[in-house]
Amino acid sequence: MRFDILTLFPALFTGVFEESILKRAVASGLVTIAIHNIRDYTTDKHHVTDDEPYGGGGGMVMKAEPIFRAVEAILGNEMPTRGRDDPTQIILLSPAGRLLNQTVAYELAQRERLVLICGRYEGVDERVREHLVTDEISIGDYVLSGGEIPAMVIVEAVTRLLPGALGDPLAPLKDSHATGLLEHPHYTRPAVFRGWAVPEVLLSGNHAEVARWRRQQSLLRTAQRRPDLLAKAELTAEDREFLRWAVGQGLIEDTLRLGNKSED
Ligand code: SAM
Fold first, then answer.
1. Domains in the chain: ranges and CATH
2. How far does the centroid of ligand 1 lie from the alpha carbon of residue 212, in Å?
3. Do 19 and 49 form a contact (C-beta atoms < 8 A)?
4. Where would I find the H helices in the chain?
5. For ligand 1, is residue 129 a contact (CB within 6 Å)?
């Protein structure tokens, strides 16, 4: 898979792709990451990439021309023609885009090439959004000063989903959000730390019991922290029974309106 990142601040990417999983993914050829300076695609003497907004108001707007020229030069005859179905996607990072989540990360991991356009200032000329990009993504409901960190987030979230990126290929399937639930807690040695003991079941060696405990913890954690996720999750009869019990114990609120067993 290939990532092309368009930015006015290439130096921000120094180091981030040179450690750990991303470093290995690059070294093994699983991913290629190319950083392009949008300023290199200007045609004027002063390499201007932004200008005042039409209609007035504060701030500057990134000009359309250098961004179009950069993307067209980088993609050549690989310009996407099939919109969101195309193996090549041109993504504008924007707080007004669709929200990145694990489902979107999986969707992006199916592509062959992602061009990521990092905005700055007040954002980019609207014609980039209207006539160049195939997708617009936000990493959350807050505003950063630039699209560089969102681009790094996408590279990281997508790369770890590619087959071969992680030592344990099944790890992403168990992560929070992959299953629709938050993941269960983890513990490692020592078994007792400052008097706080690891739950006994994890030391039991009983794999079925451990799996059951983990599922229950995952359900509890999701119910306590993200009832919105629990409402959308696929739950078995056993899950519902456990949640009903947890409601009865006062561990969680009955946000699913589980009622009593006879209502199932
Ligand atoms: N005026 C814009 C608005 O209100 O939507 C915000 C512009 S922001 C200061 C500058 C750039 O940072 C954006 O063009 C975008 O590329 C990036 N950015 C900021 N927050 C982001 C977010 N939550 N997700 C993705 N990109 C973001």
1. 2-159 (3.40.1280.10), 192-262 (no CATH)
2. 42
3. no
4. 20-27, 64-75, 102-109, 126-131, 148-159, 171-174, 207-225, 227-232, 237-248
5. no
Q: What is the pLDDT of residues 91-150, one digit of tens each?
A: 999 999 999 999 999 999 999 999 999 999 999 999 999 999 999 999 999 999 999 999
- The one catalytic residue among 44, 52, 112, 175: 175
User: Rounded to the nearest 5 degrees, what angle is found at the Cα of 104, between the Cα atoms of 114 and 69?
Assistant: 25
Distance CA 125, CA 92 (A): 11
Q: Is 158 helix (H, G, I), strand (E, B) or coil?
A: helix
CA distance 123 to 61: 6
Q: Which atom of ligand 1 is nearest to the CA of 96?
A: 5
Q: State pTM to two decimals.
A: 0.94
Amino acid type, 96: A
The gap between the terminal CA atoms of the chain, to the nearest Å, is 46
- Measure 67 CA to ligand 1 centroid, in angstroms: 16
Specify the residue with its C-alpha closest to ligand 1, atom 5.
Answer: 95
